[in-house]
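Page 47, continued from p. 46.
Same chain as before, 357 aa.
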Amino acid sequence: MNLPLQAPRPPRSPWQWFYGAVHRLRRHWLSRRAERLSRPVVSIGNLHWGGTGKTPMVAAIAAHLRDAGRRVAILSRGYGRRDQEVRVVSDGEGPLLGPRLAGDEPVLLAGMLSGVAVVVGSDRYRAGRHALERLEQKPEIFVLDDGFSHLGLVRDLDLLTFPAADPFAGGRLPPSGRLREPLASAARADAVLLTGVPMVDRSEPATAELGEAGEELARALRPYGFAGPGFGSRTMAGEPQYLTAGRVPPGGRALVVSAIARPLVFLEIVRELGFEIAEHLSFPDHHRYPPASIEKIFQVYHQRGATLVLTTGKDRVKLQGRLELPLAEVPIRAEPQDSFFRWLDDRLAEIGDGTGP
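Result:
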């Protein structure tokens, strides 16, 4: 497999230098004031403005740690929620709150991961303390969702995800680019993951393809100061499921509804599953689906002669119970190469349990 990954040169624009300097000052100021929890923290984040496959990766890592016998708690900001208080979204037994109070991604993770707690709060240190003080099953390890830019909490491992469809986002910050931090910030990461790696050569073992993809990403980031390993990961679609009636047979005429950062990627997944696309309604990422949006979905469904509505997991948690149409979810999961989990286990063994006062 040959992925010609080449990071762009650092931009010379004065605006880009200005934004980069602001990020460095912010990082320096916050890092000096960061607080540490008494258990290890593994952060999964990105440099892009969304759409990097981060949430499925958080789920995959949390599930791996849970299955290894650790008590895991996910700490999330809960983007888009209306409540700013620290909240327990799940104690490991499924969602206790809806997306309005918790955010769509935490509710999705809470439903996917039995045995894993989910706590939201804009201050992730406070959220972690809350988990240690209030949860009956005290966490042994924290997974920090979207944590790379959250510098108020000390993390023991920093992982960065890069989407194979657009790994470097043009290499530019706002106002002309799609990066939230400069590529040079990758120097702070312990490892990088290229997500959504396509299956190019079906005669070659998948592990070899993923390994080469991860190594290419790491090499492309070396000029920016990154010194750690790179790994590849596939994004896999599960069998679509009706919310109440189970498996969805292929071949139906689907109205595809999504409010995610990369809607065309999801649309292609639906096509590959064998569905006829009646229409694709794409809303802004983290859209809350007010009544006008629900009405639009209902009208387009009947106008286009659709037989079902297909959506993502994080959209399903906001549409469930509000849409009187056959609604089905396409579950999405991340499958990193096996050597990534071996690396992760080895690093965590070096870190230890972090037990402290």
